[in-house]
Amino acid sequence: MVLDLEWVEVVNHTEHIGIDGKHYLITHGDLFDGITRLAPWLAFLGDKAYDVVLSLNSKFNWLRHRMGFGYWSLSQFLKGRVKRAVDFVFKFEQNLVAHCRKRGFDGIICGHTHTPVVKNIDGVVYMNDGDWVESCTALVEHYDGRWEIITWTQETDDVDDDTVGSKHKQPKRHSGKSDTGFSKPAGM
After folding, report:
1. Strand partners, 151
2. What is d(CA 187, CA 157) in angstroms, rounded to the nearest whole number?
3. Above 80 in pLDDT, residue 43?
4. Which of 90, 113, 114, 162 could form a disulfide with 34 if both were Cys (CB 3.0 to 4.6 A apart)?
5. Model's pTM, two decimal places?
């Protein structure tokens, strides 16, 4: 599938050649997910349940804030528990790695599970950029070839969030500790 919007082209997958010359497959990842492929009705139910949990998450954190506690993602916690069970059954990461190895890629850059990580799986670099809704993460390639997950926090945001005169302030989403310990594995 290709959708062309003049200067933006939307595709199912593409290749990125890193600054170090390594070849990375870029894909969303849903095509490698056993649930979305084999049980789309279960994926649909999971998506609706996730929307409900996200709504509850807002109310839950409003209450936590009133009690003097910081932000904690109930939805991310529950999603992590479910993800581990689903990965055990369908081996999402291993499917992606096997596909990359078969096609001669050095690594994979994906999203889909929204779990930010950079790791080596059987000699293939597996990178998931997370998401910009809950974990507020992005994947960065440095000039020296290292890959890193960066995490946005309101504490480190240098943008004035009152540009439209709103009196509503966003709640603090994270503790302020950035997960910058992810980097490309040694020897890669």
Report:
1. 137
2. 34
3. no
4. 90
5. 0.58
